[in-house]
Specification:
The chain is of the alpha/beta class. It is built from 16 helices and 17 strands. Strand 2, helix 3 and strand 3 form a beta-alpha-beta unit. It is elongated, with a radius of gyration of 24 Å. The protein binds L-homoserine.
């Protein structure tokens, strides 16, 4: 059978990995796919970079203009590796309109504009595949969409941003503060020059939005996700959490509850004995809880040239196998048939019920603990554990303030917010209160 012809948009880290792995393993991939998969066009504004990648390979056209790839009638699949919401969105929509299947690693694009893109693809009968958009090389989209299709998914919790997991691991290992480790991460190439999307939780928010849509059959709706990053975490919170038997991880969480679907990203205390708490460095891991299968765990590299290429090529093989099938016989983009999506609402953060770690800088005076715990009691918030360090230990000899750490049982976020406002107003509370949510993941 004639090889399937692929046009690559972007010859950067993932583009070069895709080109190289496809070339290196072409024979095995052909035996699996039932036909060859050939990259016959590469578009990159930096044509010298594309040329360096392609080398002497015959029959690969290099162009600066991505639209030349979309316009080429011989191209069956467009692989979009440009990223972002701008030109990438236009190119993906144009490729769909031209009848091309699309493979993309662009989680930002799909989490924000997925509904429009999947509708366009459905109308045109083409596939938009995005395994590489979530957790890099881990085949989590395949697992959720196909392997776990028998299940009513109950919740997903994942470490789905390697940069922040690297930063948190280093802060814990070396006792360093956030800013110092961020600089180190940038020096090592883990964090982008502009790391905002990673450290503010936006990248993880995009990924959990896509997983929630597939798990629960709801539209992609990143605008309804609660997103909080790791920039305000202090080295002391990581230390105190450790003393209490927890590790702090940036988790993406989605959970089906009575009131709808929770969709949130924030730092979380995770019991140190959980496998997820022991995922270190830039690695990713996702736990999925299904009613039939129970708990399943997926672990691996969430970024990088060849790990992400592994996911891109898996999508290309799916397309090679399925593109001759009737569109309605293919696996739906979001796992559920497009006319069977649910309008299950995304629960506002105020309604989420979870437990909390609180750190208060308080004056070392009689009655302070009683005042704080009194306010929690009035709000009906049940205290699980209290830790107070000696003032000298926290602030040095003669210090007149100390840290008060409180773990609570589960309560509504709105209730906790109201109690926090009252505690913050106490004259004996001397700085902004740190609040970190706690997830038992049992
Ligand atoms: N920037 C992401 C991370 C990788 O740090 O995990 C791409 O999604």
């Amino acid at each position: 059978m004639k090889p399937i012809q692929v046009g690559l948009l972007g010859a950067g880290t993932v583009g070069s990995g895709t080109f190289n792995v496809l070339r290196r393993n072409q024979e095995e991939i052909r035996r699996r796919a039932g036909r060859g998969i050939e990259i016959t066009m590469v578009a990159d504004l930096d044509t010298a970079r594309a040329q360096a990648l392609v080398g002497e390979a015959p029959d690969v056209r290099i162009v600066a203009d991505a639209r030349a790839v979309i316009a080429d009638p011989d191209i069956d699949v467009v692989v979009e590796l440009i990223g972002g919401y701008g030109v990438a969105k236009q190119l993906v929509l144009e490729a769909i309109a031209a009848g091309k299947h699309v493979v993309t690693a662009n989680k930002a694009l799909l989490a924000v504009h997925g509904t429009e893109i999947f509708e366009a693809a459905h109308a045109k009968g083409v596939m938009v595949a995005f395994e590489a958009a979530v957790a890099g090389g881990i085949p989590i989209i395949k697992a959720l969409r196909e392997g776990l299709t028998a299940n009513s998914i109950q919740w997903i919790a994942g470490i789905i941003n390697g940069t922040t997991n690297f930063i948190l691991s280093e802060m814990r290992d070396k006792g360093l503060d956030f800013g110092t480790v961020l600089q180190e991460a940038q020096r090592l190439g883990y964090a982008e020059a502009d790391p905002t999307f990673d450290i503010e939780g936006v990248d993880a928010g995009h990924k959990i939005t896509l997983m929630a849509a597939i798990a629960f059959g709801i539209p992609v709706q990143f605008d309804k996700a609660y997103v909080e990053g790791i920039t305000k975490l202090g080295a002391q919170d990581i230390r105190y959490a450790e003393q209490l038997g927890y590790r702090i991880k940036l988790l993406g969480i989605t959970r089906r509850g009575q009131g709808g679907v929770e969709l949130r990203v924030h730092p979380s205390l995770v019991p140190a004995k959980r496998l997820l708490a022991n995922v270190e460095g830039a690695m990713n891991a996702v736990v999925v809880q299904g009613d039939a299968v129970g708990t399943t765990l997926y672990y691996g590299k969430g970024a990088g040239s060849e790990p992400t290429a592994s996911a891109v090529i898996a999508d290309l093989v799916d397309i090679a196998r399925l593109h001759t099938a009737e569109a309605e016989h293919r696996v739906p983009h979001l796992a559920f048939q497009p006319d069977a999506l649910s309008d299950l609402r995304v629960v506002p953060m105020d309604e989420v019920v979870t437990s909390y770690y609180l750190r208060l800088q308080v004056a070392d005076q009689a009655g302070v603990l009683a005042k704080v715990t009194g306010l929690l009691a009035e709000a009906g918030i049940n205290i699980d554990a209290v830790l107070q360090r000696e003032a000298d230990e926290v602030g040095g000899e003669g210090a007149t303030q100390t840290d008060l750490i409180i773990l609570t049982h589960a309560t509504r976020e709105g209730t906790m917010n109201a109690a926090l406002a009252q505690m913050q107003a106490l004259p004996t509370v001397l700085g902004p209160i740190t609040r970190i949510r706690k997830e038992e993941l049992a």
